[in-house]
Amino acid sequence: MKVNTGSHGARRYVMRRRRYKHSEKKVGASPGTLIYVGQEIDYKTKIRRIDYNEAAYTVENIKRLASCSRPDDASDIVSWVNVDGIHEPSVIERIGQQYQLHSLLLEDVMNSQQKPKVEEYDGSYLFATLKMLYFKPASEELDSEHLSFVLGKNYLISFQEERKADLFQPVLDRIQASAGKTRRNGPDYLLYALMDLVVDHYFVVLDNIAEKLEGLEDCIIQQAAGQDTLTHLYTLKRELTLMRKAVWPVREMLSRLLLEESELIRPTTIPFLRDLYDHVVQVLDSIDSYRELATGLLDVYLSTLSNRMNSVMKTLTIFSAIFMPLTFIVGVYGMNFDNMPELHTRSGYFVVLGVMAVLTVLMIIYFRRRRWF
Fold first, then answer.
1. What is the distance of C-alpha 159 from the center of its chain?
2. Domains, in order of start, for the chain
């Protein structure tokens, strides 16, 4: 979302959405075919593995996929594999082979248009996907990123769609600092921590949208709104609708994780997931409130335009009412008849002007008493 300043002090907003055409290669392809659907990316996938427990941790940048093997189930070390880039089918397929992941799961990982969801595969691993929403620092455009997670007994694989910045760096910093509960808990808590980071970004986006709604509200109330105000309001409503479309399935995901007893989710993690569920509900409530506010502002703006039009029409009507009898008088004495005694009166011209002036004053007094202006 881009913010500019108009000539009347009204802030202008430009929102852009990334639109991806569904790949033509998808049409007719067999289920599980790995085809990337998303923004074009021109760099190689980066893979980083973080192994940790309460006592120690190691961070390794993976250059050979053969070294990114599945950890031993008996190990007490949590293995976090962070994959930055989902655009290379060969890389995603190799990771799937290493961890014995279902082909349909890998297909959802590479499809950035996949809606958020959670699925469990035979109790051996759990798959979750959702959308990260944020504003780009330079242009303040509202953008989204497709994220996927595979949770195993003692490992977690995270897939990021994006390109340059590591969205999960704050969680990695906590692991390296040995602070908080991340190092003392299993991969299910790590999944919660990453999802909590995503939900925290939802609040940041909402704060930004609230600020822009307040700016538009001030412009409308102060009658400083320009002609593009209607476009900005519709754009904000569309962005709120898209945001709700991305957040609502997250509520269903968390509800399913809380209701279904999965062996991969430990009882100690349930309270944190319940708190995360409450945060998502709060985000959805805020989205609905802002949508109602945007609708209200739209009604106020249209009412303001209607009142302005009514004021203009009333002013024009008053002028027309004043000049109508004057035009009638002028029309009568403008007729070319010889038998019009007033035309031969010496002071007839001044008398008619006086009558017209008195008539104008009387009509103005009448309109003022009726409070028509």
1. 22
2. 2-303 (3.30.460.20), 333-369 (no CATH)
